[in-house]
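2024-03-11 09:14:02 DEBUG pipeline.ingest accepted 1 chain
2024-03-11 09:14:02 DEBUG pipeline.ingest length=448
2024-03-11 09:14:03 DEBUG pipeline.predict start
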Amino acid sequence: MSNLRHVFLISVCLTGLVRGAGDKPNIVLIMADDLGYECIGANGCEDYQTPNLDKMAKNGMRFTNCFANPLCTPSRVKIMTGMYNVRNYVRFGTLARGQTTFAHALKAAGYRTCIAGKWQLGKEADSPQHFGFDQSCLWQHRRARTRKGTPNDSRFSNPLLEINGKPKDFSNGEFGPDLCAEFICDFMEENKDGPFLVYYPMILTHCPFIPTPGTPDWDPKSLGSPTYKGDPKYFVDMDQHLDKIIGRIIAKLETLKLRENTIVIFTGDNGTDQPVATMMNGKKILGGKGQMNDNGTRVPLIITYPGHVQAGVTSDELVDFTDILPTLCDVAGTPLPSDGPLDGVSLWSTLQGKPGRNKPWAYFWYGRTGNHHSAHVIARNKTHMVRRMALDGPVEFLRCDTPYELEPVQAEGLDPQEERIFRSLLGVITNLDKARPEALKKRREKKT
C-alpha cells in the first residue's frame, strides 16, 4: 500500500471519530450489465415491464443524461475509482492494483463492504478483498468463462461462482443472479446494525439471452447456452427478472427496517447489446454496446433515499461514472481519496434539491486494449459533442440534444455560440490527451 493510501486511511479514521457509525446511511449501488437507458419503463420503454424500477423513479430522482463508457471493464474501472480511463485504464478485465476505490474509502470510514455479481477486474485470488470488499460472491473472478461440456456460459443456470474466493459449483437448478441477490440479502441482515456498502454489478442482462426462472422455456437442468449470444427474444425475460431482483433487495431493506436509512442507486454499465431493439416513446432504439454514441453510452440512473433525495423528480443534470465515487463519499460524510486526481462532481447537492453543482462537460476515453493511439474519445455537454476515433484521426463536431440522434455540424461557418462550445470541448480532449503518457509513465515506474 502506498504512503498516500496510508495518509488517506488515517484521515478517514480520524473523521470517523467525529461522525459516528450510526450517522452514516447504508449504501446499495446496483449496476446492470448491458442495459441501456431505453430499457426502463420510467424512461419510456414500451416493451418490458419494470414496476420496481418505475417505483424507484417515483420515490426518488431519475436522471435523463447519465453516460457510461461503451463497454464493461472501462465503466467498472471508472465507477470504482472516480477517474477518467485515460488516467488509469490498463486493459480489458483488469483494474490496476495500485488504485483506490470507493470501497476503500467507505471501509476506512467504518462501513462493512460487500460485492456480488460480475467481477472482471483481475484474476488474483485476493482481488475483491484487495480493492476493499469484505465479502464477495462473484462470477468470472479467477475461473474460465466456460465449463467443460458447456459451450459458452457458466453465469446463469447452474452457475460456477466464487464465494469469498472459494469456488462453488451449483447444479440443482439455481440461477446465478438469484444466488447473488440472496448473498446480498444475507449480508444486509448480518450487518443490519450498519453502516454497510453493497455493490451489485449485476450479471443480468448480458448475453447469452436465455429464459429465466418462472418463464415457460426455463430449463433448470441447463448448463449454459449453446451459443454465445443466445436468443434475443429472451431479453424481455432477463430485463423483467432483473427488475424482480431489484424489488427483492428493496423488500429486504424494508423487512429489516433499513429502507429509511439506505440510499439505493441503480444504473447500467453501458448500452444494450446488439441485436436487441427496444421501443421507447414510439421510437425503435437499437442496442449499441461498444459504440461511441447514445446507443452505446446512455444509461439509466435512478437514486432513492427517503427523506433526503427528492421524490418524483426528473433531472437533466449531466452525469458520468466519475461522479459516483464523490457522491458516495458525500453521502457517507467521508473524505475523498487523496492518492490521485479525481474527475467526478458529486451529485449530493442535486439530490437534495440544492443549487451549486457545476459539471459543464463529460469525457469518455475508450480503448479496450489500453492503446492510446487507437482509443476513441468524446467530450460532450447536453447539446453537443466532439468525437475523435483515434489519436491522429479526424475530429467530429456533432449535435446531440435529441437522445439517440447525432447530427453532424460543419466546422466552417459556426455561429459564435457553437464556436465557443466546439473550442471548449476540443480543449477538454486536448488537455486530457496529456494524462495518458503520464499515466503510462507512472505504471512503468511502479513495475521497475
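2024-03-11 09:14:41 DEBUG pipeline.report The longest strand covers residues 26-32.
2024-03-11 09:14:41 DEBUG pipeline.predict end
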